[in-house]
Structures are given as C-alpha cells and as structure tokens.
Amino acid sequence: MQTILGSGGQIADELSKELNIRYTSAIRLVSRKPVKVNETDILFKADLLNADEACAAVEGSEVVYLTVGLPMDTAIWEKQFPIIMSNTIHACKKNNARLVYFDNTYMYPQTPDVQTEETAFKPNGRKGKVRAGITQMLLREMEAKTLNAVICRAPEFYGAGKTQSITRALIFENIRSGKKLKVLLKDNKLRTLIWTPDASKSMALIGNTPDTYGQTWHLPCDDTRLTYKELIELASEIYEKKFSYTIISKPILQLGAIFSKQARELLELLPRYEYDNIFDSSKFKKRFPEFRITTYNEGIRHIMNEQK
User: Fold this and answer.
1) How many CA atoms lie within 13 A of 242 on its CB side?
2) What is the pLDDT of residues 290-305, one digit of tens each?
3) Is 47 exposed, middle or buried (0-12, 13-18, 19+ CB in 10 A)?
C-alpha cells in the first residue's frame, strides 16, 4: 500500500496516476474530501491536524507521500504546517512506513546563487521560516535514523490542470482568458520552472528507489532556463499569437498590499523575481539519466492544447 497525504491537488493527482501506472494499484488517497484519480484508489477521509486520524490514515502503508498544500496565508501556515509534519512523522514511525516529503524552495536565500541540495537555509519572511522549520523537523529524524524518509524539493511550477503558481496565474491563465500578461519586477532574469507531471513522476521514482532515502533531491527541470521575456516569446510562437505583457513594479505591489491580502502574502517572495533563479537538479539527472524531462516547448504546447 502506498498512501498520499493531501490528495486533490495537481501534484497529488499526477502522483497517483504515476504510481498506478508503474508501481502499484494499491493507492490510498487521504484528505478531508478525497476523490478518486484511478478506479482502484482507496479513499480515506482524515484531518491531518488530528494525530489519531493521521495514524489511522497511514496504517498499513509501505510508503507515504506528504503533498499537503495550504492556502497562501501566513497565519494558517504557521499554525497548521508544524502540526501536520509532526503528526505525519509520528504516524510513519508508529506504522514503520517510509516517508516521501514534497518540499519547495521557500527556505533558500532569495539570491542569484545557484541552488543545490547543499544550499543552506536562509528564509526570507514568515512563510519561508515555516517551510525551513518543518523541513528541519524532518531532517532531524533522518539524521538520527529514527525515520526512513526522503525529501523531494521542487522550484516554482508551470503546468496544466489544477497547477497553482504565480507563473500559471499571471502568464498562462491570462492567455486563456484573453487578458494582458503580467510579469513581476523584471522580465530579463532567468527562471527555473518545473513541469508539474515531471515533479510527480520523479517523486514516485524516488519513493520507489530504496537507495534514495536519507537524502534531499532536487526534482528534475529543463536546464534551458528562460527569462519571462523569452518564455512569453516562446508562448507567442507556439500559440501563433503575439502576447504583450506588463511588468508590475515593486512600488505598485507594495501599494496593492495595503488593500489586498493576496498582494501582502506575495511580498516576501518578491526577491526571487528580482534575481536569476537557478535551481540545480544535476544530482537527480546523474542518478536517473533515463528520466525524460519535459521541455518548455512541449509543456507550453500541452497547456495550449488543454485550453482549446
């Protein structure tokens, strides 16, 4: 049995599909309102903020994937993420299950320095501190060898379906709705984006490869890094339509934050759009050279075809 905690999002859905295709049909989907992805999925209603329910959700599992996403709300993150991680660790230890944790890069310094698995945590803002704290909670268990776990870390997403990211919202959703595209701060800085199905497929591969455990892995991305200007030019070529865009400056965003909670939640992430963002996934590529990474051309074409 392999169990996905926090089912319902794009990452979890793609993970369930990949596990079913390549590894097992015994998949348990856990959330407050789980919905089947594959016909054979087992649904389990649970609140991971409740330790007993988290233990029950994990019982009988060989591998557990923690893919929980919370609303972009700092107060909710500070209150709930540490409890969810603590309950998940306890549940996996009690049930002797391996844990695969899907992580992000919020704890990294928001600088132009290349990000590797060895990059020291230096979070900017409260959400980054939350992500650093829960990851360190898990790392302590891994270092003490009290839990067999692995960390899978991904940069910002782009993708189809229910993918949620700033790039998706400001670029591809605006293409879909016929609105002018938007870019944060600068259009000439290199970005590292990951295609959401690639993130899920590589996580499933890591979770089912025993020698990957006890480590952190950067999930695989196309090394043809593009600036937003180049990304939009590529989209224009693929869609055969010239897309224009507006660059949103920091003063405009700071002004918007006075009136918009969503804009306030975005402020701590701004430095990552002010510099080149280089996320290195060479460790994964060396270990799994056969894994096929989706190119930006392929990914954008897939989004275009879905929007038709």
Assistant:
1) 1
2) 999 999 999 999 999 9
3) middle
The total domain count for the chain is 1
Is 89 a member of any domain? yes
Q: Is residue 207 part of a domain?
A: yes
| Orientation of helix 228-239 relative to helix 296-307, angle to 10° | 50
Long-range contacts of 81-85 (CB under 8 A, 24+ apart): 81/130, 81/131, 81/133, 81/134, 82/130, 82/133, 82/134, 82/137, 83/48, 83/49, 84/48, 84/49, 84/54, 84/134, 85/134, 85/137, 85/138
User: Checking phi first, is residue 145 left (phi over 0); if not, alpha (psi -120 to 50) or beta?
Assistant: left
State the residue for tokens 């600068």: 186
Number of Cβ within 10 Å of residue 37's Cβ equals 20
In a domain, 120, yes or no: yes
User: Is 0.85 topped by the overall pTM?
Assistant: yes
